[in-house]
# Entry
Amino acid sequence: MARLRLRYYAVQNVPLLLSLGLFVAMVILYIILFALKQSRLPGAFELLTTVNNTLSVGLSAIGQTFVVLTGGIDLSVGGIVDVTNSVAARYMGDSPGSIALVSLATLAVGAFAGLTNGLLVVYGRLQPIIVTLATLAIWEGIALLVLPQQGGSIPPALTAILAGTLPFLTWLPNSVIIAVLLVAGWQLLRSTPFLTGVYAIGNDERAARANGISVARAKLGAYTLAGTCAGAAGLYFAAANTSGDATSGTPFTLTSIAAVVLGGVSLFGGRGSAIGSLAGAFILTLLLNVLFFAGVNTQLQEFFQGLFLILAVVASTLVRRSLQRAR
Amino acid sequence: MKAIEGVALSKSFGGVVALRRASFAADGGEVHALVGENGAGKSTLIKLLSGLYPPDSGEIRVNDATVHFARPQDALVSGIGTVFQELTLLPFMTVAENLMLGREPRSGPFIDRRKLITAAHELFDDAGISGIEPLELVGNLPLAQQQIVEIVKAVSRKPRIIFMDEPTSALAEHSVDWLFGVIKRLRAEGACIVFTSHRWNEIKGIADRITVFRNGEWVATSQAAELSEGDAVERMTGQRLDVLFPKPAPVTDQTQRLTVEGVTAKKLPAISFGARAGEVLGIGGLAGQGQRELFLTLFGVNPHTAGTVRVDGAAAHLRTPQEAIRAGIALIPEDRKTEGLLLPLSVRQNLALAVLKRVSRNGFVRRAAEDALVGSMVTSLAIKTPNPGQRVGALSGGNQQKVLIGRWLLTDARVLLLYDITRGVDVGTKRDIYLLIRRLSEEGRTILLYSTDTEEIAHLCHRVLIMREGRIVSELQHDLTPEAIVAAAIRVPVAS
Amino acid sequence: MRPLAIAAALASSVGAGTLLFSSRVSAADAPKLIAAASHPPPYKIALSNSYIGNTWRVEMVNEFKAACAMEPLKSVATCTEYSSGNDVSKQTAQIDDLISSKVDAIVVNAASPTGLNGVISQACSAGILIVSFDAVATNPCGIKVNTDQIEFGRKGAQFLVDALHGKGNIIEVTGVAGTGVDQDRNKGAEEVFAKYPDIKVIAKYSGKWASDEAQRATVQQLPSLGKIDGIWCQGGTDGVIRALLDAKRPFPIPVVGEAENAFRQYMIEYKDKGFKALSIGQPPFLGILSLYLASEVLQGKHAKTDVTIPFPSVTQDTVKEGLTTFKDLPGSYFVDFTDSGPNASVIVCKDAVLHGTPCPGTLAVRL
# Structure
């Protein structure tokens, strides 16, 4: 029984397994190139920076996953990261109370932004791409109001907690622990009726509704969670950079979508896993590192990133098709 | 006490009236058949009574109490279960998840996956179904099995009132028997079953009462025993249709048009047969015996690894549908929406799609040529459309199917693969399509016909090949009757 | 003290950084201190640039490359150049990789003045010298090389006032709104104009530092404007002049503008008709100066301090074909890639800017 379940799980999650495979391949490639260039193996510093650099994108990609699973897309991620990044940098004080309060407030701002998207999509009956394109601009604007001049500051304690290491295990970055917790949290959420509903409406909204699923609730939940994750990304980004910038979150919109695609989540909705999206975010960071240590001209970096994205998606499609044929 | 009642229900979609002050009532412990042509309002009535959308006016009563369904959930709670014609299954979720959607076994706030699978097994056991794996994705199941899952899902909620919209259209004969067993059990338990079908013998075999709809209006309700097929058809269409099936045209041309030699592909271990020009060749057998794969392989969708296909003696390369079309082979599939028609585009655009090159000069479509071609097609196929610019999605299902057939008629396709093309099509349109098949054969085109309705194969074909497990196990040429075909399909093969 | 505390938190979290902690603190506490590298040359110096999509940035990267291949830098430094695009995450990842590669110094044109603070602290903790320029990074553990944008405004405005003898109608063409540079330049200019009551600013609009934008905006404004006596422009100067000429407005009138090649060509063309003009630029050779500063600091020859350089500028009298303007280069080219005059910060040849190839002779840099 367990083996049968495992076999069906593997067959039905080929895209996720492929992206995890790609992630492992990128790690190995990175280690090889690093060792060739630096005549040593990557160590604690490389682990710390790679995971830290990934986590902001990873959080926003996990958020993006919820919306993509419903069959939508969230272009406002970058704007929400901008706002929350600015809020955290501007208002957070050094006291533990302030850190906790403003951190929660940052997440709440993200949740509110996501909920707004959800309300407009569900009750405004507007297309997600239009709604979130508009709210992207709105949140970018508000971010500039919150933090007109780059700066603000994040208390060192929060930076140490989110982007540091455990005091007694200095080789283990806290961000690794956070990533593991995110994966575990996703697995728990995966077995809730709520997320089953999200998958259901992504499969076929009409059919899900006929089955008694509340489309409104599933979508509102998905968008709110997406906003909260983007808020977490903004907070983390501020903590890792130790200060805020009202415009630096903007690229997150596209990188989160790229991560989701690399993670094997179907842009048509209803299929995929946030674990894949997180792996996708890691692949993107590792790709930067690989290109760096391969000595690729940085002016060609964007080109290679685009090429890589296309190749990865094409390869994944081919593998999936040949597996389907083989069945 | 009436189990379910709709009183003077009206519903319009964007100015098109689907239901006009229609009333309907059914009792507990009865099987009530709803009949009528496509567009008669049967499906709309079922959707209103299932809470899929609210009526524009009128009232719904359950057990004599007025109810207001804001969403399907409300109807489910009132004990109403529905098997929708457009299945409500989620293709990328497992059979178990689909069966238990919204009522998954929990442990704490989380779904208990183990119990979920067990529950799915139990539902299948209760329903007497075997051979469907709960862990499989619904989208990977053949249509017939999907239909079964849809039925099991609806019935397993133990509804007091159950609507089944065309539940048999995708089912093979033995599954229809299973379904009728289920319906009889439900009736014995006092449930109210309302179902629609286009197959008269099914209706006759199971219904206690029959209600006829026409043009969105209620026409009559009678005891099933008191209504003859002729009367029913007359009420449905407003005219008497004595001869439903036209006799096949005699085959005069002895030219071998299609030759299939040892074609080996997915689910097809080396198949060989031939067909003459103007011949209608039926492909029979139980559902899921490789008929679909045969059609897809001949149309270049599924690749074949060995063997040759010849059209008029010339070897045809069939690696893609484009190559099949070039070789003179056309496929008209069962599922109009996903396999051929572009619903948002006009009748004109859909018809001309396959022949754009012929009506174009220097890369531009010549409107006059296109108009002439499309106009003649609309007339000769009797496509009911206000004008060729009409969106295909706004036509009834039968007329959509005609557009699809018309598209291939415009091409020089010499071999037509018709795969269950009358599925869910109303009686009047069915007859049009039968006449069309006859005309196609008179023109000397070779037709391969598969249908879930064995009557069609029996009456329309010159010859029938029976398939089992991807092989042709027998060939029938004389005395083609549904009984003979079914008998050949279920006959246990003699061990060689 | 906060940035130091942050750095401390980071340092303690990055095991390897702890050892270098003390030297970094003293450097920041006493910026005058000599902060030489712990090993003899050659030094590995990397350029981490953000955006690479305009002429200015391409010129800057080319000059950086060329300078590194010239003496005296050639024998003390090996250089690499990286561009990340305007994406803080990518530039951060890139700088992290540079830290892993154990470079000695990183010269940064930042995607965000604050967004790189975290990674710059990590670099400092690893004992890497950070020199930021143009779009500087605020993290105080690094040093900065830049111009004074308020002075840009002031200097141009004073020139214009003097050319008009303190009296006349002028228009003010500003830059990209919301940026610090735009605000500073306007501030400097308006300080000066405020002192002369007879100078009237009859129009103020944005040219977005682009010739086509400035031209379009000027064409829109002209019909509603009366006599124009002078122009103060932050960028897109040639576009403004083209608009005036197209509208058959009286020309030449005094113009202050950026270092567009086409603007300087107009200077030469109209010089004999009494054209008075000043061209000031944010020079792409800031990258060279930063590289040079980094190498000097690493060698212990220069204190680890910020450097502010004067703007390179030319007037109608000092502009010179083949040196500070070029007939055969596109009009959009920023020809302040090289300084000129007796007190020049640095003199660079055309090949260095166009192809990144070294100029003959050695590089003379005045910080």
